[in-house]
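Sequence in, structure out. Go.
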Amino acid sequence: MQARFSSDAKTEHFKRKEEVDLPDAISDAFSYAIQEALFYVGRTAPNPPVGCVILDRQGKILTVAAHHQAGQLHAEALALQQCRKLGCWDKIYDVVVTLEPCNHTGLTPPCSEALLKTPVHRIWIGVNDPNPNVYGAGNERIKQDGKAVFLLKDLPGKKAQYWYEKCNDLIAPFAKFVTERKAWITIKQALNVSGSMIPPKGNKTFTSFTSLYQVHQLRRGTEAIITGPNTIKQDWPSFTVRHVSDHIGKERLLIICSKKDQSLEEIIPFEYFEKARNNNFKILLCANIETLPFLLYEHKVLWGMVEGGPQLLHSFRQKHLWDEWLIFRKQNKGEDQVKLISNHQAFPTRLLLSQSSFANSSKRKKGVLCSLVS
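Output:
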């Protein structure tokens, strides 16, 4: 697809912030970049998920890439590597990336310097790096070399602001990780028609297959499952990712929240320990739920998911320890009703489950959960 504004002269319109929107090709590229990054959510920690698309002057996509995991190439570096292999290096014109390119050397070289060694003319950035130690450094380095840099937050068009919101959703857990030194916590709650969390006798769930599929998508995107000893004793859950393909070789934390002055071995049956370890879980005990976000941070967890009973969920609500609350409520007919509430402007769950139809997704209002936790 050809970009509507492809010349350097028309690029000046963006610099002056006139009332123009993203070129169609750039808007499409942000969609592809985010979708590619979403595939690796749950695998990149402690790094953020990032997607990158490279286009030629006519707006044709040359390559799409994402960061796969810490220690491996960043999204921009991988996309550039792919361009070399495909023989289209000289055609590089636009680079679209969901997060500001890094300007420091960590496990990999800085992406800002890698981009400056290319024939790129314009770089489109979804959001700045939220890390206060590096915020804006990549943008400034690229600008110093005379490249045109566009930040979505500075562009007034509806498409620009739409993708700016989605890029913020994509890195919301990482943003909390680097600014508050805490993990992002999403509560999953299933309710029957009458609003109870207790499934019928002999069943472990009463939600539809579509809801179950979405739960497994969310599990895939998290690095930790949080539960209580009663859930384990009553349901013997595996907490594995089964209805979608999981990240190969992925190890997750399984956090058991319990106030009892007992060891894990006293709380959890040995057989369950063996089952969890065989399923690639590392089990930890959290005796004080208020320390949980910091415990997760210490283990480099960006995103944790709570799957527990009414008592555990009540504790999370009372202590204000959640970031998103995802509710599946069974209906008399048809699919379950799905609601998502966030304590923030960002909705990473909504983005991860972007094919889902949410009955409501909104920022939390005071007292909104009182009737939902029973």
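Check: The mean pLDDT is 88. The first strand starts at residue 51 and ends at 55.
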